[in-house]
Amino acid sequence: MTKTNPWILAARPKTLPAAISPVLLGIAYAYHIGTTINVETAGMTLFCTLLLQIASNFINDYYDGVRGVDTEDRLGPTRVTSSGLLTPAAVKTGFMATLGLAFLIGLHLMSVGGLPIVLIGFASIFFAWAYTGGPFPLSQHGLGEVAALIFFGPVAVWGTVWLQNQQADHMLAIVYGLGPGLISAGILAINNLRDIESDSSSLKRTVAVKIGETAARKFTFFLITASLFIPIYFAVTHRSLQFLLPIIPYFLFWSNWKKILVDPIDRSLNLALAKTGKFLLLYCICLSVALVWK
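RE: above sequence
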């Protein structure tokens, strides 16, 4: 049986829909408002956000490994630093190189988008590091879901639209961004629900640890389900049923939400997390189809 390359493990491919989905939605919204899409800029936006997500995963693996947060008791997939598959120095070099490449690509995007993209770019790099690194790691103080909601939602969608069209009304882009932002926060909440026992023993104060298992289950379900209010809102305001398309994948994954609410906390939540990533991608594809539907 072929072993997975440790760098692929560290990159966590199943989390990458959180990076590309809001960008796809932003491109669709820009097209919806009459923008001629710049394919080069769109491609570089997608690549840059992917690199930032991968860098954030490397950083999380590194800091949780060297701080002893990732233990043998955790239910999640193998972490390369704590398991010894890669040395801490190698993982640190990996995230520095990935952040550096994201910055180089970001320089072009900053030249296209000006000051707003400069601010978003530096904030994204900083929070990719501050999520797990630094003196006040967001993930260890119950702020991970907030960061995910903001940066994988309104910021990503708004920034993508701004790079394509700086003259349009961008407020609706923020509203559209709440959908993927809520689901991304839900993905992180599933991760924290799965790791509630190991995080508690290692003094990692996630939202799940702070509010307890029962409330954490309801909180996670709420985040994911609340994303449906966005397409419902636009179906009503646009008087168009096509905006209800994202509701279809939600019910296709109904057994997944049941698992989050009532099933035992075990390694099966890894599959629930992966399926929620697929739901995020399908949600944004469906909403994008509704936007470009003529």
